[in-house]
Specification:
2 copies of one chain form a homodimer. Chain A is α+β, with helices and mostly antiparallel strands. Chain A has 12 helices and 9 strands.
Chain lengths: 325, 325
């Protein structure tokens, strides 16, 4: 359905499949906030000319281990995949590759790019700036995005996949509380004046808060610098929201691939990672904790389940998708 | 005093100066937990043969952009400086350099290494595993360290320096609460059974908690993998404590240097960073916030003040240092 909807507006099959695969992957992982529910907005933006259907993605600067990519204002997924694949190619030759990307768009879940390194027996790191939604620590106005960071690390069994926003929660969680008429916990957000709030309506007009105060604020800033500042793209308040139909988003990304076998024989790495995973899985549990999960483990299990049982989609989202066909 | 104390036990002047400079830098920054107060333990470990005075630091594997270093069980500062300098050298030629290090020791503040990249107009990233002090999320036993990560980014005026433990607080803060007979806030630590505690005595026997639950736990794990697992060194429960005099610590580090001018002309980068800094500094403030600080700004101001006014050192620490001479 997603591929068809994208082909209908003129996206090449190959690129439509990349965007669709990324969105469906998020739904398989159980992260519906970044799944197919995003497609209607993507399509609307493309129809209005805010996303290029046939982007010219160009290497602007290059060296043996790094590159700067102009995303040509293409779909974030199409640009992001090119960027990570280029980082992997460079890492294969020199041990590590890094690609900073400007002029892109919302790229879905950051893990979609970090996990691309896994099949090459590499460690993948992916990050992106996003529209301002978070105040810097001490501030009362959104300057930084929820700027996610993802790490993917291979093991013999299943990979370790960390994918985290640098904000305490995603805006989506506050929107859900608003729709349900529920309060939000203190610490998630501040209102327009910068005061802590538990009212989701006030929080939606205010700012998200970073994880652990200055630490999350600092991490978000670093992501913005490696993505937006270093690439020559948009950063800070200049990054556009996917819901602002007056302008392109000009989102920036940063990708790193680390070629494990340049550091240590791959089998030895796997033995060691497996040992560390076993240590963690066998850790005595805190009271009322049934199981200790590795980063990404819940998502990978959900993926297995949903590949068998299907992805639950609410009627509203499903009807919106039908309307795109 | 620190250099003399180290020379007295046989450390070369050059290496003694590196260790001393790192410890004093921490004190200048106001981070006394990682300052000269650490020297008596360092000296004691060296005297017992747990740290090599004349380490053979060797490149074990190498490629144009990466290296694995055997730290020869030298002082973490001596090894860490070598590692970051090698990463910088590689980044100068290829755009990015990464060095994973095993068989090292406590290296002081992570920022000491990330800031070394600044004078080369590079972005520095430094991290290290540390002795188990934190339970993985959901666990009740220490497997992961407080595993710090530091980023240093140049600007026209003063650099952005983020240096953060992946635990909510350092163990030192709990020790201080214990000495003062104060309670600790909930969320800092759990007791031996894995239950939340506000009693510093119980916390010292239990585990620290990660920042933001699964996020900090995941970040700490990633640091351990990039440092310990990827280098072929110690990781997880196998990393030794500086206070355990029965064995070497076998700490591992990971350093990255990113050569800005390979991505974007340096002056343009500086203009852009300055703009982002201005945006943040001019952000409307939350109520009762006098000023918005950038990562590292408090430390850099403290450094200026202490360079003029001196470093306050408590009598106990000072006497211990005198005893080393």
């Amino acid at each position: 359905m997603c591929v068809k909807a994208l082909e209908k507006i003129g996206v090449d099959k190959e690129n439509a499949e990349i965007v669709a695969d990324c969105l469906v992957k998020a739904d398989l992982y159980g992260i519906s906030s970044h799944g197919v529910a995003r497609l209607p907005t993507y399509v609307e933006r493309a129809k209005r000319g805010l996303i290029e259907l046939h982007p010219e993605i160009r290497v602007i600067r290059e060296n043996s281990s790094i590159a700067v990519l102009d995303g040509g204002n293409g779909f974030g997924q199409v640009v992001g995949v090119k960027a990570m694949d280029l980082a992997v190619e460079k890492a294969r030759r020199t041990g590590i590759g890094a690609v900073s990307v400007y002029n892109s768009n919302h790229f879905g879940i950051a893990a979609y790019y970090s996990i691309r390194a896994l099949k090459h027996s590499m460690i993948g790191i992916a990050m992106s700036n996003t529209a301002p939604a978070m105040a810097p620590w001490g501030g009362a106005k959104s300057i930084l995005g929820t700027n996610p960071i993802s790490f993917a690390i291979p093991s013999s069994h299943q990979p370790i996949i960390l994918d985290m926003a640098t904000s305490k929660v995603a805006r989506g969680k506050i929107r859900i509380a608003l729709e349900k008429g529920e309060k939000i916990p203190e610490g998630w957000a501040i209102d327009e004046l910068g005061l802590p709030t538990t009212d989701p309506a006030k929080a939606m007009k205010g700012c998200l808060l970073p994880i652990e105060g200055p630490k999350g604020s600092g991490l978000s800033l670093v992501v913005d610098i490696l993505s937006g500042v270093l690439s020559g793209g948009s950063f800070g308040r200049d990054v556009g929201s996917t819901e602002d139909f007056s302008r392109p988003t000009r989102i920036s990304h940063f990708m790193i691939a680390i070629n494990i076998s340049n550091f240590i024989p791959l089998e030895y790495f796997m033995t060691r990672i497996d040992k560390l995973i076993t240590e963690i899985k066998n850790c005595p549990r805190a009271p009322n904790i049934e199981r200790i999960y590795l980063p990404g483990e819940i998502e990978l299990e959900e993926e297995k389940r949903r590949l068998k049982e299907g992805i639950p989609i609410d009627d509203n989202t499903f009807n919106k998708l039908l309307n795109l066909l």
